Amino acid sequence: MSKLSRRKMLATLAVTPLAAGVVARTVGAENPLVTSLPSLFGDEDKSREKTRKHYFPNFELTTHEGKKVRFYDDLIKDKIVVLNFMYVKCEGICPAITMNLKRVQNLLGNRVGRDIFMYSITLKPDEDTPSQLKHYVHMHHLKPGWTFLTGKPDEIGVLRRKLGFYTSNVEQDKDLTNHIGMVRYGNETRQWWAMCPGRANPPWIVESILWMDGPNGKEIKSADHGATKPDNSGHNHGKLRTKG
After folding, report:
1. Structural contact between residues 114 and 146, judged by C-beta atoms closer than 8 angstroms
2. Helix intervals (H) in 18-114
């Protein structure tokens, strides 16, 4: 889709709930048709609190390094984040997405762990202990700033649904090997959220993530891509189911 046509599409978008995977991104301050969640719900602080209560339960999780953290307080609040779900013994889509996000991490450079944070949450917390997740990180030679997480199975299930990583077909949704291969990214402070396929072109994913920083987004240069920067155009993604 061309930049022009994506801008036209953006101008007609209305913001929908987080689980739908849609974000309205500001093309320009002068554009009255482009909005974000605070302007829809009124007071920004009240809107942010409603979003937190509905979508970001403050469950305790454990990182691949064995550290106890709170999902909202420690991982999401005031941050630009990139999230996906996976599990260690997945023989389907997970390894491909991990390698694709590794390229994303490399393109983002030292911003990862500084002002952009990457999280992968296991779908099988009964199997994936912190030590197993740490081995997974080392096996794939992943850099700091990308945290793998486990927790209580029922709470992981709640997080998965709250964040939109599910299908409306209940029977299919029970089969965790048939999980969706999507990536959620957003800016909690601005309440801008979107989703994209986990196997999308890494520079395109980087462009989308950088857009979440608004006018502060800076282009990033890499050996295999040249310059990557926000193009002030909108991305609107639905759900994708992939066998994993």
Report:
1. no
2. 37-41, 44-55, 93-108
Output the pTM of the full model: 0.76
What is the Cα Rg of the chain in Å?
Answer: 17
List, as one string, the DSSP characters of 145-199: TEEEEE--HHHHHHHHHHTT---S-HHHHH-GGG-B-EEEEEETTTTEEEEEETT
pLDDT: is 58 or 167 the higher one? 58
Domains in the chain: boundaries? 3-228
If one counts every other C-beta atom within 10 angstroms of the C-beta of residue 96, the result is: 15
Tell the residue number behind the tokens 């064995």, with chain if given: 66
Q: Pick the more confident residue, 183 or 175.
A: 183
Instruction: Read off the pLDDT of residues 107-166 as tens digits, 9 standing for 90 and up.
Output: 999 999 999 999 999 999 999 999 999 999 999 999 999 999 999 999 999 999 999 998
Question: For 75-105, what is each residue's pLDDT tens digit?
Answer: 999 999 999 999 999 988 999 999 999 999 9
232 in the Ramachandran plot: left (φ > 0), alpha (ψ -120 to 50) or beta? left
Write the class of the CATH domain 3-228. Answer: alpha beta
d(C-alpha 85, C-alpha 165), whole Å: 8
Identity of the residue numbered 8? K
d(CA 50, CA 117): 23
CA atoms in the 13 A half-sphere facing the CB of 124: 16
Structure tokens of 228? 């990557």
